[in-house]
Amino acid sequence: MTDRADPWRVPVAVAQIPETGLHRDIEADKAIREAIAEVGGLREVLSASASLDVAPKSGGRFQVTGRVRARVGQTCVVTLDPIENDIDEEIDLIFAPPEQIPQLSDLVDDAAESDEEIPDPPEPIENGVIDLGRLATDALFLAVDPYPRKPDAVFEPPDVPDDPEDHPFAALKALKLDKKPPGAKKPKKG
């Protein structure tokens, strides 16, 4: 059974992560792929997998690195034909205990004011767990092309009429009324 908001759940308890870190290869089964497609507004998800490493850092923080790979079915925005796109998204995130998030976010804000490369703010460790499935799903959704098109699809704009009188509002122009608006005074004769 999958949760609609989080269709792919692979929780890892941070208390059980060894000092040497851990590696997880995860793959979404058919039911999870169908749920991901529904939540993400995709025609279908043909495959979804992730290869992730979780390494402990100082201060109770953890770094998650790896890749998410997927093949998604979408609809071409030009031709409306079904198409498939491959996703290969790199992941490199820091997870921190929730109480550290405001302080670490301030450091990111300070870095934004300098010329240094701006790091991403850390993600919170929720209830002592890092959910690798949710992380993989989020990376997949961020990598999906919002305007997919077939490689050979060319958008042909509609023909624009040459005659300026031949437009959708030309008929309204013909409806001009000679009536004066209510309350308008007749001009005085001089």
List keywords for this structure.
DUF177 domain-containing protein, alpha+beta, five-stranded mixed beta sheet, 190 residues, YceD
What does this structure look like?
- This protein has one domain (11-143).
- The strands form 2 sheets. The protein has a 5-stranded mixed sheet with strand order 2-3-4-5-6, with helices on one face. The protein has a two-stranded antiparallel ribbon with strand order 1-7.
- The relative contact order is 0.17.
- The protein is of the alpha+beta class.
- Helix content is 21%, strand content 29%.
- The termini are far apart.
- It comes from Bradyrhizobium sediminis.
- Residues 148-168 are annotated as: Disordered.
- This is DUF177 domain-containing protein.
- InterPro entries: YceD (IPR003772).
- Pfam families: YceD.
Class derived from helix and strand content: alpha+beta
Question: In what order do the strands lie side by side in the largest sheet?
Answer: 2-3-4-5-6
Let me know the largest β-sheet.
5 strands, mixed
| Contiguous helical run count | 4
Classify the helix fraction into a percent range.
10-25%
- Total domain modules: 1
Topology order in helix (H) and strand (E) letters: EEHEEEHEEHH
Protein name: DUF177 domain-containing protein
InterPro entries: YceD
Region (Disordered): 148-168
What secondary-structure arrangement, pairings included, does this model have?
Elements: E1 11-13, E2 22-27, H1 30-40, E3 44-56, E4 62-75, E5 82-96, H2 101-112, E6 123-124, E7 129-131, H3 132-143, H4 170-173
Organism: Bradyrhizobium sediminis
Region (Disordered): 148-168
Protein name: DUF177 domain-containing protein
